Amino acid sequence: MTTRSVVVKVGTTSVTDESGGVDYAVLVNIADDVVALRAQGWNVVVVTSGAITAGWSEVGKGRARPTDAVTLQAVSAVGQPLLMQAWRNAFGELSVAVGQVLLAPLDFSHRGQYLHARGTLEALKGLGVVAIVNENDAVADEEIRFGDNDRLAALVANLVGASHLVLLTDTDGLLTADPRIDPSATLIEEVTAFDVELLKVAGSARSGVGSGGMASKLAAARMATWSGVTTVIAPARASESLRHALGETPGFGTTFHPRSERLSARKAWIAFAVASRGTLRINQGAREALEHHGRSLLRVGVESFEGSFIEGDAVEIKGPDGQVIAKGLVRVNAESFHEGDDVCVHRDDLVLLRRV
Ligand code: GLU
């Protein structure tokens, strides 16, 4: 039995009902699927949204949902245990234990912390426990939050080396138009490339209480497929949704095929997980050396730079036309940038981002 691994993310509109409380029936259906998949040899990690919405249904007393960050963070602290209690009950009916893992962007930025989080998820798997992940909403500052769990789920997929990412939501998948505006909208079953047309399709369609919308799902799918992870956007409330999504049932959900060259976990981490601390603008010669000859970036190739990065920080690398072409870890400090002309970003620490 081969072990395949999937991260399944369930959005706020799917986890909660109209009153904002946890929609237990949805959780039970997902737990059923997860347990059936585990019996087939799948490792499953769940990423759940819904803490803020569930929290407000508890303390809001019917008032309009607040919008300021501090109150929302406090409300998430109320909702997170409600959410976990519901997941625990749903899996408990099937005699499976769950564990809560709350992650913040910084956990992905520091390599040591990143490996530590991976170790914890591995250990939970070893214990036969289903990890239930959410963003650590209660403490992360607004500026350094993910804000949406789609991106978090893509990073978790990369973290655990998942083969699949399934984003369960309140639509049938990615549609050719917003169905509320254009009733003739149809499902796009497969996506092999991220082009301008596709981004237009996604528009900025948002559902009521979730913070993601289709644009953030596409961003997550792009990130995941770059890391070699097959991604499916599928309807959360369909029966056996997760099993259909993974079984490639025709006409069910939108499947994004991974790029053939899988980025190593470390390169995917550099490309998508670490926040950039500066920008290097390079000349045409350096750009060719990077893009066509797989070389390292030398200091002489850098025309200008911005930011106060230090050695080991991630930076974006822009070509002469100002477009971001790569991301990498610098080996120099901004303060002493012009001393010497050796390697500025080594090719082992560099990810080309143009070939999408
Ligand atoms: N972490 C948020 C919550 O649990 C949800 C973020 C999202 O909607 O993607 O309420």
What does this structure look like?
The protein is of the alpha/beta class and 356 residues long. It folds into two domains: 4-263, 3-Layer(aba) Sandwich (Carbamate kinase), CATH 3.40.1160; 275-352, Archaeosine Trna-guanine Transglycosylase, Chain: A, domain 4 (Roll), CATH 2.30.130.10. Helix content is 37%, strand content 21%. It has twelve helices and 15 strands. The strands form three sheets. Strands 3-4-2-1-5-7-8-6 form an eight-stranded mixed sheet, with helices on both faces. A five-stranded mixed sheet has the order 11-9-12-13-15. Helix 3 (51-59) packs across helix 4. The longest helix is centred in the N-terminal third of the chain and has 24 residues, at 69-92. Residues 12, 49-52, 76, 134-135, 137, 148-149, 210-212 line the site of glutamic acid.
| Number of discrete helical segments | 12
- CATH-defined topology of the largest domain: Carbamate kinase
CATH architecture of the largest domain: 3-Layer(aba) Sandwich
CATH homologous superfamily grouping of the largest domain: Acetylglutamate kinase-like
First-to-last CA distance: 34 Å
The SSE order reads EHHEHHEHHEHEEHHEHEHEHEEEEEE
Number of strands: 15
* pLDDT < 50 stretches: 204-209
